[in-house]
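To make this tangible, this section ends with a sequence with its C-alpha cells:
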Amino acid sequence: MNTARYGDESPIYALATGRGGGAIAVIRLSGVGTLELLAKVFSKPDALLGASAYTILHGYIEKEKAHAKTQRRKEYIDEVLVSVFRAPYSYTGEESAEISCHGGPAVVRAVEAVLGEAGFREALPGEFTFRAFQNGKVDLTEAEAVMELVGAEGEAARESALGRLAGALEAEISGLKSGLVEALARLEFSLDYPDDEIADEMNKSGEDGEQIGLIDLSLLKNTRKKLETLAESYKLSRLYTEGALVVIAGRPNAGKSSLFNRLLKEDRSIVTPIPGATRDWIEARFEVKGIPLRLADTAGLRSTGDEVEQLGVERSKKLLEAADIVLYLIDGETGVTEDDVLSTKETKDTKISKYIFIWNKADKNLPAYENQSLCPSCPLWLILSATTGQGMEDLYEALGKRLGEIAREQSPGHSASSTGLGTERQKALVEEALGNIAETISLAEKGEAAELIAPVLREAVNNLGEITGEVATDDILEVIFSKFCVGK
C-alpha cells in the first residue's frame, strides 16, 4: 500500500468546511485524473467530462448497489452541485473540482466513502496549498498567509495576512534579495579573474566613502536597516494574532466580574455580593479596534487568612505582571482603601502606563470621586457602571487608544496597514540574514579577501530565498504545511 506523501500528483479529497453539521458542506478534489474518477460516481458523467472550466453542474453522487434487485444498479448518496476547475487555472494549478453537498455529518461521511472507493485518497494537512506552491500559484509567504487568514480573529490580523497573500511581503523580500544578489555577483566575478586584472577596480571607493573594493557598504547597511525594521514588525503581527492581555483587577466586590461580563456581552463570570467569590482567574476573548484581546477576570486583591483565596490572590498578582493593560476597579461606594493603595503601589513607577483606573458603580449614590490617595500622577481615570453600562464608551475609547500605543511601541516602523512578517519562521530567517550581513560588513571593513566574504553573503541571499520558498528542502516544506488544517 502506497503511503501518502507531499509532492505526488495523486487525486486527493478533503472537507473544506467544518465538521459537525451545517446547511452545506464543500469537499475539495484535486490531482491528475480528478474529473475522470469523479465521473464514475456522478450521475451525469458525460456532462462532467465535457464541462468547461468554471462550470457548475447539478446531479447526484451515487454508488453501485450491493444487491441490485431493480433495473437501477446504482443508488443515490446525495444531491450535489459540482464546480469544475481545469488546469492550470485552479487554486492548486491541477485539474480540480468542488462538491457542494448537504452538510449533515452522515451525508459528508457517505460522500467521502464513495470518493475513497473511487480512487481518491484523503489529503494531508495543507496539501492543496502545498500543490499551489509546488505549481507556482503562490510563494511560501502567500501560502502561510492562507493559514493566517483561516486563524485571523481580528480585523487587523485579517488585513495584515491579506497583504501577505497579495504578495506584499514577497515583493519586499525579493527586492532586498535582488540587491544582495547583485553585490554577490560582483564578488564572485572577481574570483574568476587574476588579482592584477581587477586591482584598480578593487581599490576604488565610492564618493561617500561607503565602498570598499567591490563591496558596496551603503547597499549592505541600507538592506540591514530595512531588515531590522522588518524583524521588528513581527511583534506587531503577534499582537494582532495572539491578542493583548487585559487584566481586570481590584478589591473583592469592586465589580470586576460584572465588568468582565459587560465587556463580553454575556454572563461568563459569577456575580455575587459575597466578597471573595472569584478564587481563580478566568479568560475569554473579544475585540477592540480590530485587535483581539485576552480578557482575564481575577480574584479580588486583599489580605486574607483564607488559604485558598490567598492562592487566587497570588495568581492574580502574577497575571498583573504579564498584562499589557490593567483595568483597576475602585468600588465607588467605599472609595479608595488601604488594600487598593497596597495593590497599586508599584504602579507609581514605570508600569503606570498600562493601568486604566476605573471608579465603578456610578449608578449608586457615590461619595466624592477622588484619586489623590491612590495615584495622583495616574494618567487615566474613568467613571462608569459595570452593571448598567454607563461610561462604557469611554472605556472602549481608552482601550483603543492604549492598544494603539502598544502597537507603536511594539513596532515603531510599521502600522496596521503595513504588511510585515507573519510567522516565527520568517522572523528567524530575517534575523539569520541580518547576522550574515553584519558579518559581511565586518569582514569588508577589515579588508578580508573576497573568498571569505562571498560565502557569508551567499548565506544571506539563501536565508531570504528560504522565506519565499525559492530556496527550500522537502523536509522544511513538509514541516511547514503539516501545520495547516486539512482542506487547505
